Amino acid sequence: MDEEQDSEDVAFEHLKKYVDNLGPDVTLIHVGLDGNLISLSSDPVHDNTPSMYYPPSDLVERPAGVQVILRSELRELDRFIGNVDLVSYQAESDDREASVTKTAVFKYYWNIQFVGKIWDEMNLWLRLSHHPNIVPIDRLVLDEVRGGVVGFTTIFIPGGTLEDNVSRTFKLKWCKQLMALVDDLNLRYGIAHQDIVPRNLLVDESTDNIMLFDFDWSAQIGRRRGPLFLSYWDIRDDVRAVVFTIYEMITRDFHFREEDWEKLDVSLIQDIEWVQHPDITLDHPVAEYRALLNAWLKTRAEGKQVTVYTDAPEYIDWPILEIPTGEFTISTGADRTVETWTPMNLSKALAQGKKLVEWRRPKQNTLKGDYHLLATGKLLD
User: Fold this and answer.
1) Pairing mode, if any, of strands 84-92 and 75-81?
2) C-beta of residue 354 within 8 angstroms of C-beta of residue 44
3) Structural fold of domain 49-156+352-381
4) Which domain of life is it from (predicted)?
5) Are 323 and 53 in contact (CB under 8 A)?
6) Where in the chain is the domain with CATH 3.30.200.20?
7) Start-end of CATH 1.10.510.10 domains in the chain
């Protein structure tokens, strides 16, 4: 704008008016005091897009079966929410004589505040991917510049979440599976998921198993790893969350979760009648779901308690990510390779002849027909 503003709010309001019609290469817009657009620029010198730190893949301990894939090998199919896309890629068939198209969910980051959190989520999730009721991680996704880990893919399970798809019969066995899964997470591995809700639960029709995903709130019980990493909060109790999840699936009454977690108490729903929603089909009477739940709550209350993750017999741990700082250099000595990294914007990187990982891509509402867009943002003919 022509004059310095006391707040960025005015500039953002003007930007919102024009952003949908700007080309992907626009780096600067000039508006007058009246908000009218004066000029545009695509000069990279104005590009303040920050660089991101992506850890080397050799820092990640990959379980057997989890492979790596370049971001440029992923084809975008849909965008679910911010930083989560539906993608496809070519993989070897079981007989290795041909390639097959696989569909996956790609989770990634391009904001520095998420570096530590996605590191924790990825490492924790990798160590739980063997569980029959957890959606497994499929691939680690590497950038094309230095081979850093920009994110990961998980197996895509069609059919929608329990919250979205009410056409399926909500089975009592799924409740039993969910309770057993939470017992495993809390008491066997020392992990709290901290976000068990119907929108984070799927059903694998091939096994008829309930499947939990989205571990970006999860943490080791009793441990807070710092503001940039995943931490444990006792108010986000998994046992309490299971109670509300089963209640919500039977009644379709979600209003209790609109309250703060601190205000949620299972007595809010234990002391009222559960009225089955007309759109919901159950394979047992409501009373049997409640009896199962009450028996499990009694067992959890009277049984073993894990207040610190290291008390669990098979507790899960992983190294904290230490982001190196300083000018970007790679020096090889007799014993080790040292890499250091300094955040910089794209214009500075270009001036220094350095290549950064970029996330430019066309706006979704401009893509028509059978387009072929790579996860890098490159649109193929």
Assistant:
1) antiparallel
2) no
3) Phosphorylase Kinase; domain 1 (3.30.200)
4) Eukaryota
5) yes
6) 49-156+352-381
7) 172-311
Count Cβ atoms below 10 Å from residue 364 Cβ, excluding itself.
10
Supply the DSSP string of 283-345, one letter for each residue: SS-HHHHHHHHHHHHHHHHHS---SSGGGSTT----PPP----SS-EEEE-SS-EEEE----B
Highest mean pLDDT among 13-22, 36-45, 68-77, 321-330: 68-77
- pLDDT tens digits, 162-219: 999 999 999 999 999 999 999 999 999 999 999 999 999 999 999 999 999 999 999 9
For residue 238, the cross-strand partners are: none
The residues pairing with 70 across neighbouring beta strands, listed in sequence order, are 142
Dist CA 212 CA 227 (whole Å): 25
Closest CA to 49 of 377, 380, 282: 377
By the 8 A CB rule, do 317 and 220 touch? yes
Length of the chain: 381
> In the numeric block, which tokens belong to residue 329?
């250099």
Q: What is the DSSP letter of 147?
A: -
C-alpha distance from residue 210 to each of 122, 173, 194, 245, 260 (Å): 21, 9, 17, 13, 27
- What are the tokens at 63? 């379980």
CB 376 within 8 A of CB 356: no
What letter represents residue 355's amino acid? K
Domain 172-311 has CATH 3.40.190.10: no
The predicted model scores a pTM of: 0.87
pLDDT tens, 270-305? Answer: 999 999 999 999 999 999 999 999 999 999 999 999
For residue 61, give the DSSP letter: -
